[in-house]
Specification:
Blueprint (H helix, E strand, L loop, with lengths): L1 E2 L5 E2 L6 E8 L3 H12 L3 H9 L3 E7 L1 H13 L2 E5 L1
Antiparallel strand pairs: 1-2, 3-4, 3-5
Helix pairs in contact: 1-2, 1-3
């Protein structure tokens, strides 16, 4: 494995990625709005994700989709990682 500049590891040939939520330092409202944009889940499902952190937000997605989700969540004050 080699390290990218943003601290994420890159595996050669990896085509599916997971976006993992670890917690939030921002408001729950902005976090839930970001989760809704990314996942399209219901309010109850989004609250469950926040309360059960660490949890997978997206699984088996492209790197571009994972990075898009990461950017939206980080903007809302969420601690996330792409695996």
């Amino acid at each position: 494995m080699r390290e990218k500049r943003d601290g994420q590891s890159e595996r050669r040939g990896q085509t599916e990625f997971t976006l993992k939520l670890f917690g939030t330092d921002g408001s729950k409202v902005s976090t839930i709005k970001a989760l809704r944009q990314i996942t399209g889940c219901t309010l109850a499902e989004e609250k469950d994700m926040l309360e059960s952190a660490p949890t997978d937000v997206l699984r088996g997605v492209s790197e571009a989709e994972a990075r898009r989700g990461k950017a939206l969540l980080e903007e809302a004050g969420v601690s996330v990682r792409i695996e």
